[in-house]
Write a structure and sequence with these properties.
about 250 residues; mainly alpha; 2 domains; two-stranded antiparallel sheet; 2 strands
Length: about 250
């Protein structure tokens, strides 16, 4: 089977699997962090788990860039930098911001994360740097790229702001789970998740590709149910949690 045929089959299957996972995760939150439960087998420290889980996304995307059959263009380098801006931080910086009280992560969750990142990075990296028609420097002035890049940057800023605000609050209070009342936290429970959804929605528009769209769909399929689970947990944990606060999309979800 030619790789291009395999790529197309995998890409279409990836969309279907995202829908299945959305339905599953609505009923069964992934068992890590505040939703950890017994019975999931061996576990790793949260720091080690995040590092092992996210490193493939950073390293393999760089590999697909280097192995790409097309000569590197300014646009392809920009895509590389956009991807690594998120994943280098997520793999090699974020894990070391986790406190010692962070709950262990089941090995099965780490393995699933590795599989997801390997497949997702293959689809996006291989498409951008080999199977696409190519992105010339003029693409950076295309309306689709400009809009997508702006959405990407807005999501990136929101994601980093939210993580920083949560970390600062935990450091100041010494409490693992805090009820946040600043900025966008007053309207939604998980602005960090909204930021990540915006990042990969922007990526899908900026690359204008089915591979990019598959990532945006998977991000929503994973984080929308988890945000809803967070909201249910918060309402049970904090007795006076605001009843009108949504999970991840103000006024909607």
């Amino acid at each position: 089977m030619a790789e291009s045929v395999f790529f197309q089959i995998l890409l279409r299957s990836w969309f279907v699997l995202a829908i299945v996972m959305f339905v599953v995760l609505l009923r069964l939150p992934a068992p890590y962090g505040r939703h950890s439960t017994a019975g999931w087998g061996a576990a790793l420290s949260s720091r080690t788990g995040w590092l092992l889980m996210e490193a493939p996304a950073s390293l393999l995307f760089l590999l697909w860039f280097l192995l790409g059959s097309r000569a590197a263009s300014v646009a392809s380098i920009v895509f590389l930098l956009m991807w690594e801006a998120h994943y280098f931080h997520r793999a090699f910086l974020y894990p070391f911001t986790l406190g010692k009280t962070a709950r262990p992560m089941p090995v099965i969750v780490v393995l699933f994360g590795v599989v997801f990142n390997v497949v997702n990075t293959y689809l996006n990296g291989r498409y951008l740097f080999t199977f696409s028609a190519g992105y010339g420097s003029e693409w950076l002035l295309d309306f689709r790229f400009v809009v997508g890049a702006l959405v990407f940057c807005a999501g990136y800023v929101l994601n980093r702001y939210s993580d920083h605000a949560l970390r600062r609050e935990r450091t100041m209070t010494g409490v693992r789970y805090c009820r946040m009342e600043c900025g966008i936290f007053r309207y939604i429970c998980c602005p960090n998740y909204l930021g990540e959804i915006l990042i990969w929605t922007g990526w899908a528009v900026a690359t204008w590709s089915l591979a990019g769209l598959s990532f945006a769909v998977w991000t929503a399929a994973n984080l929308l149910p988890r945000a809803r689970a967070h909201l249910r947990w918060s309402r049970a944990y904090f007795k006076d949690y605001p009843a009108n606060r949504k999970a991840v999309i103000p006024g909607l979800w």
